[in-house]
Amino acid sequence: MKWARIAVAYLICAMCARSQPQWRESPGYRAYQRGNTLFIAKKFPESEAAIDEALRLDPKLVPALTLKAKLAMASNRFDMARGSLEQALAVDPNSGYAEFLYGMEAYVTSDLRLALPRFEKARQLSPADPRVALYLGFTSEALGHTDKAMSYYEEAVRLEQSASAPQAATFLAGSRLLLLMGRQEDCGRWIAQALKVEPGSRDGHFELARLLLIKGEAAKAVREGETALVLHGGDATDAQIHYLLIRAYRDSGSPAQATRHADILRLLDAKAPR
Amino acid sequence: MGLPLRLVTLGLLVASCAGTMPEPAIRFEEIARKAGLNFELRNGAKGQFNQIELMGGGVAVLDYNNDGCMDIFFTNGAEIPSLRKTGPEFHNRLFRNNCDMTFTDVTEEAGLAGEGYSMAVAAADFDNDGFTDIFVAGVHRNFLYRNLGNGHFADITQKAGLGGSRLGNPWSISAGWIDYDNDGWLDLFISNYVVWDAANELRCGTPEQQFYCHPDVYTGLPGQLLHNNRDGTFTDVSRQSGIGRYVGKGMGVAFADIDGDGFTDIFVANDSSRNFLFHNQGNGTFREIALEAGVALRDDGKAIAGMGADLRDFDNDGRPDLVESGMINDSFQLFRNLGPGRGFADYGLRTGLLLATRQLTGWGLGIYDFDNDGWKDIFFALAHFTELGKFIGRDSALPNRVFRNVDGTRFEDVSAGAGPAFQLAGLHRGVAFADFDNDGRMDAVVTQLNGPAKLFHNVTAGGAHWLAVQLHGTRSNRQGLGATVHVRLADGRDLYNHATTAVGYGSSSEPLVRFGLGVNRKAEKLEIRWPGGATQEIADVAADRIVQVTEETKR
């Protein structure tokens, strides 16, 4: 069920729903706007209070219902999230965004069986939304539909590019799968695209280091790994990068450096809660 | 036309055979029922989602009566929460091989029905009396049964000093016999899982959809090393050996001398935390080197839900490699041993095992040459976690898989051709390996949760030659566990294997050291390196038999 855990982070920091004009006339809209601003500022309790206010004024305000669901998911209250989304979809069955979040609710609770059809429906409703294609890719990959997953990643990239908003994370999702499929040259191209979009991507340099290590280019892997280690953000943890550097230094004939990174990793491990 | 037509035709036929003859498919028949092997593993589950229900299912193969035919011992669960074997459905079981591929349940006369919630078994002759003994690991209680040599076993747990430890009574999940100090007496390594008790079981999920908690929410435990005092008792040396310093969520264990220094090393697969590789420093202490060796984690630095493990040489370079099973979307790991000081390299991707196992959840496993072509294959006992099926829209039960080793470069999933019964899904757990009918082809016995055990009789065609080595230690431990064996073939190939009964997950396999010889009718040379480094050579060993090798007393 590990695949689900990464998704919560995406939920919190990413993607605000684009409010449809019809909701602007709602008596709860201003409270919703306030709640959304507070959500982006990660002031979750204050945001929740504002959303409750919005829904008290208009219980059918779909943007408020979807925001409430996101807040609930961010705090692991998945029952509440599901309820809010089902309400939202009852009011507006054509809300691609609500349907996408409904898929997310299933995805982050590891229910891939439910997530897949919800994402597929969201894709029908919002065919230009790259996030939906990306999560269809994640879900398909987790279910073992490798080729299908790759085509969704390609679609997500296409949609992002056509909206002039390419994302490094999307290229890297594809690159990881390409690496697993043994398509090292393609993997390298996708990582290069990610680093072109975001040259300071910690994940991008980490993935490049992985690829180089697998290709036997240990010295280059060391360089990329060390670069990743000093960068911030992304999903790759310090522990993951140290583990890569242990092997890269070892393979490039620097056992002392390998030992140094092993010692650091053991220290990190000792500090981690068990 | 200078050549007679007859000769041309013959030549074409021969060329055709040499060039395109397909390798015989690895094939099994499932014969448990026919063989009288009637055992069902019961986990005592009553809808309460107790973590212990997921595990268990260890099985051992041993020749307890020294008749030359391998017998089978199954561990079994118990009632929860009492953890008592409240009825015969929870008894552990010993089945005697009647040497005609049928088995007789001799549990009662052997005195092995057992107590408590049993998980795993390790079989070996710990007291060097010539009879294989049985250690049963379980939830809060472990047992050591001494084989009295007359068909009966005696529970000597308390007398041996194994009735408890400074850890209290942990949940032990695997164990293995290892002579870590080469003193000629087998010591005991125990892999412990997590702190658990029925009264305080954690609840996960929602009231309407409860499920088993992730291992992350439980506190891990260190393993234990118990030194054999040569008098039927053991001393816990976990602390002084360094083993006890490392807290994990131990699952399967595997033993091999990874660097050829004459001392057996220990690998522990950990569930959702990094694995341990304990390098035996030859002075009674171990150094944990999984990180440096590159076997601690997956290639991307993430821990897998490590389950079973086996350390054997898949590419015939003389160095034991490592295979570890995991959970769906982990991929099973294959680490190639690069030699002393160079660690291991991740070979899962380039051998095809990584992608082929990504959708599988594996428990027991074994690296054996099932088609005797000289390249060791891999057998995986499979099943997703119970209840996981609901989340992925598929059944939790899975058929087992066998991967054929193609020239030491890649693994090919040949399960589809392994026979109709091999395709049947089950909640498989432990697997132990032996040649039950002494025909030279490796068979497998597999347990399944709340279902009948399976006995996969290897019926692979092709008539490839084989050799098995039964070691008799004199200075070394009686079964020669820890010895490495090197076979040189006339076709120039060198094959390597070693003696261990610790294979896979919670299970124990036959102690014989086996080789597939392919078309070779003999081994030009058989070289045994006994624990401690003494070597012994035998020239021109005919194939298709079990060779008895007794350790020479002089160095």
Give a description of the structure.
The complex is a heterodimer of chains A (274) and B (555). Chain A is mainly alpha-helical and 274 residues long. Helix content of chain A is 75%, strand content 0%. Chain A has 15 helices and no strands. In chain A, α10 packs antiparallel against α11. Chain A is elongated, with a radius of gyration of 21 Å. By secondary structure, chain B is mostly beta strands. Chain B is 7% helix and 35% strand. Chain B contains 6 helices and 39 strands. In chain B, strands 1-32-31-30 form a 4-stranded antiparallel sheet, with no helix packed on it. The radius of gyration of chain B is 23 Å and the shape is globular. The N terminus of chain B is likely disordered. At the A-B interface, α7, α10, α14 and α15 of A face α6 of B.
What would you report as the Rg of chain A, rounded to the nearest angstrom?
A: 21 Å
Q: What is the end-to-end distance of chain B?
A: 65 Å
Look at the helices and sheets of chain A and give the structural class.
Answer: mainly alpha
Low-confidence regions of chain A: 1-10, 12-17
User: What amount of the residues of chain A lies in strands?
Assistant: under 5%
> How would the global form of chain A be characterised?
elongated
Multimeric state of these chains? heterodimer
Total helical segments of chain A: 15
Major β-sheet annotation of chain A: none
| Strand element count of chain B | 39
Mean pLDDT of chain A: 91
Number of helices of chain B: 6
Unreliable runs of chain B, pLDDT <50, ≥5 residues?
1-21
The fraction of residues in strands of chain B falls at 35-45%
Q: Biggest sheet of chain B: strands, sense, closure?
A: 4 strands, antiparallel
